[in-house]
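Why do we bother with a discrete structure alphabet at all? Because it lets us treat a fold like text: something you can write down, compare, and reason about line by line. To make this less abstract, here is a complete entry for Pvc16 N-terminal domain-containing protein. Read it the way you would read a sentence in a foreign language you are learning: slowly, and without expecting to understand everything at once.
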Amino acid sequence: MIHEVDEVLKGLLSGGALAGSGIDVALDAPTRDWAARRNSPTINAYLYDIREDINRRQRGHVPVHDERDIVVKRRQPPRWFRLSYLVTAWTKQPQDEHRLLSAVLATLIPRELLPPSELPSSLAALGLTIPVSVAGIQTESRSLAEIWSALGGELKPSLDLVITAPFPAYPEYDAGPPVTEGAVVRTRALDGTPQGTEERAHRPRQVEAAKEARRAALRARGRNTTT
């Protein structure tokens, strides 16, 4: 999951206001040695903190549907993790670094939510939208000054970028087949002999009506989402 978020972030930073600029995008730790080797303008996004977002934790299970909209598996809800990146610009002049940071802000501010269609592999399979926060109030226990001190470098302008991504919960387990026959109620006399006729408490046509109502609700939810 983390490497997929890295891929998404590199794509975001390479596009938007920086599209076609030829600016390098790196994910390295911005140490003194790394900075000394820079010979071209670079945007660096260093992942410095990974924490679970407890407020997003859910209980229960999530149904998994096939192409016919039938529940075939169930799994636990995903766990959400806050991936915090230290975004910095590296050039020979401070003014150029400030311009690059402004371009990063212009690129990321409109992207507060990333839809599944823009996500790779297993992230897209979850069908969830990923929130992105840039230059917000820092809530992690360590300050940016402490981070720079740990890296052995001098404090410089930076953006705190947080991408909250879901991590799939495993394992999945098979669900029972869909109901096609209703339950049958049979009555017997005290001596055990059948009494009366069979009565279906839940008929197949009632099952189909319930399935159709669910499909209609899904279609309505899809229309509300697009609007």
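What the structure line is telling us, in plain words: Residues 2-56+80-167 form one domain. The mean pLDDT is 79.
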